[in-house]
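Input (structure):
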């Protein structure tokens, strides 16, 4: 039997090497041979040995680890065909017309469980990740009955090297994601361990502590879902949660560096959001500290966000926090802001926090509009890819950018605080306009961006503004728009002016001669020498003019009728250069002209 096992091991090693060979014929031959070897009893054991063998080439080890991951899925999740211990190692005959189950015996399973923990100490992060996945997947089926020593192994790893801590935390992350019926049994042990790791900032890396928070999040969800009574939940959580909550909140204000990161803070905010929405009784004692801390984070980061991300006027003073160097620091920063807005979204929709929101409503609108500004990256991308511009700016767009998310939050604020909003909105826009004027006079080339995001907000609240003219001075705002139209600061600014004016064109305040000036600028903006983003916004404006003035009977209707041919000619000239979503937008404008 040992000879047969050695022969299979040698055969598998040779075929794995061939799969890495550049010659396609050798690869195909090796794949076919391995497809046969897969049905030997010790196939999984050998893959595990290859995976953790640091003397082998890393490419071969990673290949073996991917195959091992699939094998574990097949044999534990699907069962395989269990054979008596000591079965022969000869290759079975494979019936080409059948799909046989994998052969696996208890001894092979025991051997795989003995081998795998060694991989948690591996220097290669990708090997550790696959090994952790395999251990967690096996644990779902074998723990505690057939793998009682698993948590002894995990605790040992948590007291080992930086690599083993990382490996063990990855196991717990994967394991807790799938926990259901076992959560009551395992949660107290895991909770105490992750609390110990999170609070030992000098002993454990930021990555390990981030994993601790991820694991806590999974545990809370599992406890909340699978433990029925509040008394049982309290018995599990109360020994650790009060201290843990205090340390999590403190973690939000810790400066980035060896003990904190944007990724860590993002995970903390995710937990706090979940607890406020789904475990409110457990988090209630801490809300008085959580809300001002999150608010402080959002407001303090706003200026930083504008300089580093929106205007790129300052270099990002941070690097990615992923230990393999794969993550971008700006991306981590952006993800944290998105998570803060998700938290704010949750709070806004909860009636119990209405008084708290009303107290900061002007500042909330001010900050949200600030985060709605077009970034330099977006401005460049949209000029190069008009399809992306239309997709990103569509109300039903699917990409969760900070601009889109902040705009969504503003709309929710409008829905939930309609009566109180407009005075706060007017005050916030006044502050933005004053700052923009200072920036413009100082020669800041990005001064127009806050006006663009302000107009997007005004257009979004059209119905509210029209119904409450005393609460928003549209005449004064139109004077500002006229000035902005003539500034030639950016095609995005001019395009947004046209869009906004088309939204309000049926209102009595918008009359001649300004109305004719607006329509003439719209026609001019369709010409082929104009930036594509301006042409797209002009098409949106045409749709607005034609739709909103269709049933109008005064001179504005006469004006629009006199310009339909110009609209038509301008749009038709754009069709040859357009495709997909841009074409769809032009067709919508064309249909509005026709109707």
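Output (sequence):
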């Amino acid at each position: 039997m040992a000879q047969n096992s050695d022969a299979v091991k040698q055969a598998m090693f040779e075929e794995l090497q061939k799969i890495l060979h550049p010659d396609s014929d050798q690869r195909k031959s090796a794949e076919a041979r391995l497809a046969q070897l897969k049905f030997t009893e010790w196939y999984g054991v050998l893959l595990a040995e290859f995976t953790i063998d640091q003397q082998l080439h890393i490419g071969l080890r990673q290949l073996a680890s991917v195959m091992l991951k699939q094998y574990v899925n097949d044999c534990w999740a699907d069962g395989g065909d269990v054979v008596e211990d000591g079965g022969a190692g000869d290759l079975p005959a494979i019936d080409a017309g059948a799909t046989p189950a994998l052969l696996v015996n208890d001894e092979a399973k025991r051997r795989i469980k003995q081998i795998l923990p060694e991989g948690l100490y591996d220097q290669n992060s990708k090997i550790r990740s696959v090994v952790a996945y395999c251990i967690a997947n096996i644990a779902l089926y074998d723990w505690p009955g057939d793998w009682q020593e698993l948590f002894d192994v995990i605790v040992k790893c948590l007291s080992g090297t930086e690599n083993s801590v990382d490996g063990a935390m990855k196991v717990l992350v994967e394991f807790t994601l799938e926990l259901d019926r076992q959560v009551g049994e395992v949660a107290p042990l895991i909770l105490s361990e992750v609390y110990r790791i999170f609070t030992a900032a000098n002993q454990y890396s930021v990555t390990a502590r981030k994993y601790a928070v991820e694991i806590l999040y999974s545990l809370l969800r599992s406890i909340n879902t699978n433990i029925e009574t509040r008394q049982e939940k309290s018995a599990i959580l109360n020994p650790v949660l009060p201290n843990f909550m205090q340390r999590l909140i403190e973690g939000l204000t810790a400066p980035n560096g060896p003990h904190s990161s944007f990724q860590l803070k993002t995970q903390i905010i995710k937990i706090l959001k979940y607890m406020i929405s789904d475990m409110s009784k457990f988090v209630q004692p801490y809300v008085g500290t959580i809300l001002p801390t999150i608010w402080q984070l959002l407001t303090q980061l706003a200026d930083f966000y504008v300089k580093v991300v929106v205007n790129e006027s300052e270099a990002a003073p941070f690097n990615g926090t992923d230990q393999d160097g794969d993550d971008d620091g700006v991306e981590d920063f952006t993800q944290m802001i998105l998570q803060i807005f998700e938290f704010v979204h949750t709070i806004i929709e909860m009636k119990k926090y209405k008084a708290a929101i009303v107290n900061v409503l002007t500042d909330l609108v001010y900050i949200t509009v600030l985060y709605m500004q077009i970034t330099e990256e977006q401005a460049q991308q949209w000029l190069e890819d008009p399809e992306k511009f239309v997709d990103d700016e569509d109300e039903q767009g699917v990409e969760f950018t900070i601009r889109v998310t902040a705009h969504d939050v503003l709309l929710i604020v409008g829905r939930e605080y309609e009566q109180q909003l407009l005075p706060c909105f007017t005050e916030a826009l006044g502050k933005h306009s004053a700052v923009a004027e200072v920036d413009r006079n100082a020669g800041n080339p990005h001064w127009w961006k806050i006006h663009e995001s302000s107009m997007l907000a005004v257009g979004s609240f059209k119905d509210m503004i029209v119904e409450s003219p005393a609460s928003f001075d549209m005449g004064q705002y139109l004077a500002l728009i006229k000035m902005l139209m003539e500034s030639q600061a950016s095609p995005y600014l001019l395009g947004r002016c046209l869009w906004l004016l088309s939204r309000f064109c049926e209102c009595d305040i918008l009359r001649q001669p300004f109305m004719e000036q607006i329509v003439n600028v719209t026609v001019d903006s369709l010409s082929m020498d104009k930036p594509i983003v301006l042409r797209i916004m002009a098409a949106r404006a045409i749709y607005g003019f034609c739709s909103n003035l269709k049933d109008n009977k005064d001179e504005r209707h006469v004006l629009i009728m006199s310009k339909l041919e110009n609209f038509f000619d301008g749009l038709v000239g754009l069709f040859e250069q357009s495709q997909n979503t841009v074409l769809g937008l032009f067709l919508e404008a064309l249909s509005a002209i026709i109707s």
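Notes: The chain has 30 helices and two strands. The longest strand covers residues 81-83.
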